[in-house]
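Support request, please re-run this one:
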Amino acid sequence: MTTEGTEAMTTEGDETVDADGGEDAASAGLLEREGDAAADYLEALLDIADLDGDIDIDVEGDRAQVSILEVNKGDLASLVGPDGEVLEALQELARLAAAQATGQRSRLMLDIAGFRLARRRELEDMARAAIEEVQSTGEQVRLAPMNAFERKVVHDVVTSAGLVSSSEGVEPDRRIVIRAS
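Re-run finished. Output below.
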């Protein structure tokens, strides 16, 4: 590999990172291949279902992100399903397609018609309201059960606010408890 300049490299587990903590080109390439494989799978699915959608591939942090964007309003609602249930299933299928193509377990995130983005914003607002309640009352707050994606969003907001959160319970009733630090 030829690069301009020289950066120190270290190995952490199965991943090689440069000294300042960034991913190396091989990791980024793997995530791009994951995204491409998932996009190919989803494009074939859209063709079979005779649905129109534009596919966007991105790499954010340590995850490939694939989004199916609506061309015609409401066309993709059936791929989201009630409360995102179909979206969750399609994400798992896209992850399997990516894993088959790369030989590596995939943590790919799928969004359809902006459903996850909108849900993320709702969860961030809910988390901020719960944080305000904890700060004003001093009492812990238990939130409604959430899936892993939703809990991760809330944990991130709570952590950035300097409070503590933990998950309790068993799927599908696993929930977050927020308390002062």
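Residues 32 and 64 are 7 Å apart (CA to CA). Residues 25-49 form the longest helix (25 residues).
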